[in-house]
């Protein structure tokens, strides 16, 4: 019975591997869900052909990191820890994903970004208007 379970698990894993490597037309999209809470980590830009990223100066020293919470309901919440007392200010809006574009509207301001990287641990965005790169971590 034990060897039967092992064979079943191996067959299931092989099947999942084969389907994950199929050549469907997903335009480079990742299958990692976008929803989740992401802590602001780094910001930067491209200099020539290289990314130059620094620790996000928006994070107040001694406070928790600012965050972007993308919810299943397409609500977006930006959390900003501000001032010497690290007071949390949350601003709510919406987001829409279209292929590898992410459009977020918070506080009446709409930004559209390319999703440069989306993994279980990182969301990296590049603002289409300004070219600013923002890295969030889970």
Distance between the termini: 40 Å
**Strand share of the residues?**
over 45%
Largest sheet: 8 strands, antiparallel, barrel
Oligomeric state of shown chains: single chain
Q: Into which percent range does the helicity of residues fall?
A: 10-25%
Question: Average pLDDT value?
Answer: 84
Q: Using only CA atoms, what is the Rg?
A: 19 Å
Strand segment tally: 9
Question: How many separate helices?
Answer: 1
Instruction: Extract low-pLDDT stretches.
Output: 1-26
CATH architecture: Beta Barrel
Order of helices and strands: HEEEEEEEEE
Structural class: mainly beta
Broad CATH class = Mainly Beta
- Total domains, how many? 1
For the largest beta sheet, what order do the strands appear in spatially? Answer: 1-3-4-5-6-7-8-9
Instruction: State the CATH topology.
Output: Lipocalin
Q: How does the overall form come out from the CA principal axes?
A: globular
InterPro entries: Lipocalin-like
Organism: Flavobacterium fluviale
Keywords: Signal
Protein name: Lipocalin-like domain-containing protein
């Amino acid at each position: 019975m034990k060897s039967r379970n092992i064979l079943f698990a191996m067959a299931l894993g092989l099947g999942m591997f084969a389907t994950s490597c199929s050549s469907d037309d997903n335009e480079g999209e990742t299958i990692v869900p976008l929803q989740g809470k992401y802590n602001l980590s780094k910001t930067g830009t491209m200099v020539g052909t290289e990314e130059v990223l620094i620790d996000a100066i928006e994070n107040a020293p001694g406070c928790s990191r600012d965050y972007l919470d993308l919810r299943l309901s397409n609500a977006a919440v930006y959390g900003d820890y501000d001032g010497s007392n690290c007071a949390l200010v949350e601003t709510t809006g919406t987001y829409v994903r279209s292929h590898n574009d992410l459009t977020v509207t918070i506080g009446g301001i709409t930004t559209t970004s390319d999703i440069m990287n989306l993994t279980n641990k990182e969301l990296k965005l590049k603002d289409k208007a300004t070219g600013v790169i923002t890295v969030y971590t889970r």
